[in-house]
Amino acid sequence: MTRQTPQSAGLAFRKMHGLGNDFVVIDARSGGEPVTAALARAVGDRRWGVGFDQLVALLPPSSPDVAADIGFWNADGSEAGACGNGTRCAARLLLDETGAQALSVRTLNGVLRCERAGALVRVNMGPPDLEWDRIPLAYPVDTRALPIEGSPAAVGMGNPHCVFVVEDAAAVDLAALGPGLEHHPLFPERTNVEFVHVIDPGTIRMRVWERGGMITQACGSGACAAAVATARAGLTGRHVRVILDGGPLEIDWREDGVWMTGPTAHVFDGVFSPEFLGEDE
Ligand SMILES: N[C@H](CCC[C@H](N)C(=O)O)C(=O)O
């Protein structure tokens, strides 16, 4: 997949968020220079750039059945195969632009269906990759070696997640535990880490350490992974409200995939200067 940014004086972007999981969206559908890890790191610096949890690039549609292709980068420059809240924000932009009620986008995790749900946006994140549950077999690891008690569930949602069911997610010291779990040898591609506790069979509380080295207010793919993990463990049904630090997401694990519904916000539009982009030398 080619990732392009527009060639012009400066580079336009839109700041958006879903439950405080924040994004810089760059519309690269008309081509230009590729989005690079270096650009993601520069834009993602909250002091020297703008800051984001993920950079979301809208790319030219690679087939007629999709409104756009979408790429995601973390602020450390790594690329993510999935980003639920970023997909919902990109979909909101595309739905507003076209006036459509529903459309599809292509991500590294395939074609995802997105639709309006009143004022909210819903996306089918696709089926969970339960092969991930075999990871402890493929990579034999004594989970007692993990810096937290209990055996985690590994769930792929197009990106890796490691879900711990704990007594009180709010009491977990994410900053202390996150880095060691993200980089644990059990996960050769590193992992996002979720801590959840069950409130009732339809509600869980979740906090997240995202791959890329951040605590975020919300993580859509993580909420899907957590709902799948608690449903598989028989702790919840397949329709779960996931309460994140930034607010609730509704997760519905259907036959055709894990649907996620929640709010999106358009914060402001801006233009990166040629100076910032290193284009005026
Ligand atoms: N915030 C995103 C997840 C980003 C995942 C990323 N940190 C990774 O490296 O997989 C979401 O709403 O799903």
TrEMBL record:
Pathway: Amino-acid biosynthesis; L-lysine biosynthesis via DAP pathway; DL-2,6-diaminopimelate from LL-2,6-diaminopimelate: step 1/1
Enzyme Commission no: 5.1.1.7
Site-annotated residues for Could be important to modulate the pK values of the two catalytic cysteine residues: H161, E210
Gene3D superfamilies, A to Z: Diaminopimelate Epimerase, Chain A, domain 1
Residues engaged in binding substrate: N21, Q54, N74, G84, N85, N159, N192, E210, R211, G220, S221
Pfam annotation, one family: DAP_epimerase
GO molecular function: diaminopimelate epimerase activity
Major subcellular location class: cytoplasm
Subcellular location(s) per record: Cytoplasm
Catalysed transformations (reactions): (2S,6S)-2,6-diaminopimelate = meso-2,6-diaminopimelate
Alphabetized UniProt keyword annotations: Amino-acid biosynthesis, Cytoplasm, Isomerase, Lysine biosynthesis
An example Gene Ontology biological process: lysine biosynthetic process via diaminopimelate
InterPro entries associated with the record: DAP_epimerase_AS (IPR018510), DAP_epimerase_DapF (IPR001653)
Catalytic residue positions: C83, C83 (proton donor), C219 (proton acceptor)
Subunit structure: Homodimer.
PANTHER family the UniProt entry points to: DIAMINOPIMELATE EPIMERASE, DIAMINOPIMELATE EPIMERASE, CHLOROPLASTIC
NCBIfam families in the cross-refs: DapF
Family, per entry: Belongs to the diaminopimelate epimerase family.
Full protein name: Diaminopimelate epimerase
Species in which this protein is naturally found: Paroceanicella profunda
